[in-house]
Amino acid sequence: MPITPAIFPELINAIETVIKQNADAVTELDQAIGDGDHVFNLQRGLQALQTASTEISQLDWPAAWQKIGMVLMASVGGASGSLYATLFISLSKNSLNKNLDCQTFAESFALAIDAVKQRGKSDVGEKTMLDVLVPVAESLNSAAQANQDLAMTLNQICQVAEAGVENTRNLLATKGRASFLGERSLGHIDAGAKTAQLMIAAIVSVLSKQL
Fold it and tell me: Which of 77, 106, 141, 183 has the fewest Cβ atoms surrounding its Cβ within 10 A?
């Protein structure tokens, strides 16, 4: 059975829950090298998506992703708002009029990550959420090309996301407020990478129940 946006309310509930459960820990990470408002901004966007969840659940995926992007653009402050909005709007654009199987989703997601890179003028290795999202995109693409079992793929991207978060600990920040700290940013996990990993884990948890 194909997975449709009807699952969105369950997805957003799972994401909201995991961010709430980890809010204090992530805020500590953000206060160490950032502005300290990352979780607040993210939760504001999640609440807006919660309000729109019924409408989103009745759309097809490209329209749902477009709506998600527009909601995030309007509700989330800070850099993460524009970056996540770019991700979903690009995902929508690149999946229009396509049969959304694993391969086309992986391709569309990879193009969306490229759009995020361009928007943030950043790339993997600069202590941002891209250190999670880029490896996840690469893992999805490899799995799709190998026609890998979906359960195995979901488990794999969770592991890749966790490794990406841990890798930020020893990276030098070159973007945002953390970049002003220079070498003092070393030894700290990036808050944006951590919340990206947490949200991916929540999504995987929900999707795994559908298999």
Answer: 183
